[in-house]
Amino acid sequence: MTGEWWVIATLCCGLFLLGTWIVAGRMSLEKAEVPVGGKLALLLIVAGLLRVALAATTRGYAADITTFSAWAAHAADGLTSFYTPGYFADYPPGYIYLLWLVGKLRLALGIDFDTPAFMVLLKLPAILADCATSWLFYRIARRHWSGTASLVLAALYAFNPAVILDSAVWGQVDSVLTLPILLGVILLEKSPAAAGAAFAAALLIKPQALIFAPLPMLWFGIRFMRRDRNAMADLLMFCGSAIALFSLVILPFAVHESPAWIISKYGSTLASYPYATLNAFNLFALTGGNLAPVGQQLLLLTYGTWGNIFIFLIVLFTAMVMLRGQAPSRLWYVPLFLSASVFVLAAKMHERYLFPALALALGFHIVSRDRLALLLFAGFSTTQFLNVYQVLSLSHDNIYSVPPLDPLLLTVSLANLILLLILVRVGYRHCVAAPHPEADQAANG
Fold first, then answer.
1. What is d(CA 369, CA 27) in angstroms, rounded to the nearest whole number?
2. What is the model's pLDDT at position 30?
3. CA–CA gap between residue 406 and residue 314 (Å, rounded)
4. Distance separating alpha carbons of residues 167 and 334, to the nearest angstrom
5. How confident is residue 267, by pLDDT bands cut at 50, 70 and 90?
6. CB of 70 closer than 8 Å to CB of 179
7. Is the pLDDT of residue 13 over 50?
8. Measured between alpha carbons, how far is 344 from 419 in angstroms, rounded to an integer?
9. How high is the pLDDT of residue 18?
């Protein structure tokens, strides 16, 4: 992209950070209540129209746009035979249903490929997910904040440059993955059956949902350890709904496949792109490992081995937070920590895998009212935007690898590492050093 586009991108990030700083300094629980229903509707409409305009006028990431377009057409020709032998399709069935709908609508409306109308249609599921997530944040915030403050918090997500870039410009579907993850977090304590269905839906959309598996595993494990008499019933409801939804969704495809086809599908997807990091600005990128083989050595061990060690430490810290913590916000902190730490420290990360952390950081701020959480939301939003924008910009010049010594790569990678250290400090303060239900209020002072 041209230098002018980089100026516009920098301005967008600057305005977002300025707006977040103003929010941090001026919002409070004591604001007078005013009707905001109409304003919320207007906010969502404007956010949606902005995305539609960008979707229609931007090229997106060519490889993903081409792939999703082909999948939409292929699914429309026959949904149950989508996974034909030899046909490249590394997504699980969940998002294929949406692409089938896109393909059918394209045929019904007579829309040609490579037209602005089709670009909007192809990006529409992610755009709708963005708007739905913004509405969800407003509903969550109303339990903790005034109506005006809740509206502002929803706006921080609705007009987040990193969120808009991912869905409306790039054309990816990370927001479609993030929405059921958020629902799973919200529902885990109150409705295990619904939470199980939500996490299953996320897994059906992208395998990256497995990053969040420690949350329900630790949640139920600790309840069993503490001899919660409802733990078994809740676990059965969680697993039952998850298995039922997962089985129902894959059933139409399983008719033409072997019994273990879905396991092979996830296994092959997770095994693809065996690099230390694939344009993800993280610790391994900081050490010169962008697109380095996962088996390449770094300080006596391979990148893959270091990644596995870090994953073990991540789960260990997560378990400590869940065991020690009592504050309600820990159920937001844990998936936030999993998302951010795996992106920064694990191998085989792509540039967009940090995306769920943005929503989870905002949710954590909403329920904890911790200003450092808002700093993390703003910080990760900025690093994610710069990371994705750099990759997208280079792709338009047919360059698909950020140079290992690129100044922006090194700077953003270091920033992500610093943000992760701040995140660890926040978790220790909230859930380990002050493991009481009042920790949210005490930590915020």
1. 10
2. 46
3. 28
4. 25
5. confident
6. no
7. yes
8. 10
9. 67
Would you state the structure tokens that stand for residue 90, as one six-digit string? 């590394």
Write out pLDDT tens, residues 39-54: 899 999 999 999 999 9
Nearest to 123 by CA among 58, 55, 77, 214: 55
Using an 8 Å Cβ cutoff, are 45 and 134 in contact?
no
Query: Per-residue pLDDT tens for 357-400?
Result: 999 999 999 998 888 999 999 999 999 999 999 999 999 889 99
- Residue 9 pLDDT class (50, 70, 90 cuts): low
Lowest mean pLDDT among 262-271, 370-379, 419-428: 262-271
* Residues ≥6 apart with Cβ < 8 Å to 32: 146
Contact 379, 158 (CB under 8 A): no
Q: Are 353 and 432 in contact (CB under 8 A)?
A: no
Give the torsion sign (CA, 109, 110, 114, 117). negative
8 Å CB contact between 362 and 153 = yes
Local confidence band at 245 (pLDDT 50, 70, 90 cut-offs): very high
Report the alpha-carbon angle 289-415-345, nearest 5.
45
Burial class of residue 307, CB neighbours in 10 A (0-12, 13-18, 19+): buried
Residue appearing with tokens 């913590």: 325
**73-111 confidence digits (pLDDT tens):** 999 998 888 888 778 888 999 999 999 999 999 999 999
State the SS3 of the chain. Answer: CCHHHHHHHHHHHHHHHHHHHHHHHHCCCCCCCCCCHHHHHHHHHHHHHHHHHHHHHCCCCHHHHHHHHHHHHHHHHCHHHCCCCCCCCCCCHHHHHHHHHHHHHHHHHCCCCCCHHHHHHHHHHHHHHHHHHHHHHHHHHCCCCCHHHHHHHHHHHHCCHHHHHHHHHHCCCHHHHHHHHHHHHHHCCCCHHHHHHHHHHHHHHCHHHHHHCHHHHHHHHHHHHCCCCCHHHHHHHHHHHHHHHHHHHHHHHHCCCCCCHHHHHHHHHHHCCCECEEECCCHHHHCCCECCECCCEECCEEHHHHHHHHHHHHHHHHHHHHHHCCCCCHHHHHHHHHHHHHHHHCCCEECCCCHHHHHHHHHHHHHHCCHHHHHHHHHHHHHHHHHHHHHHHHHCCCCCCCCCCCHHHHHHHHHHHHHHHHHHHHHHHHHHCCCCCCHHHHHHC
Q: Which residue has the higher pLDDT, 234 or 30?
A: 234
Binned at pLDDT 50, 70 and 90, residue 35 comes out as low
Joined together, the tokens standing for residue 235 give: 């676990």
Confidence check: pLDDT of 442 > 70: no
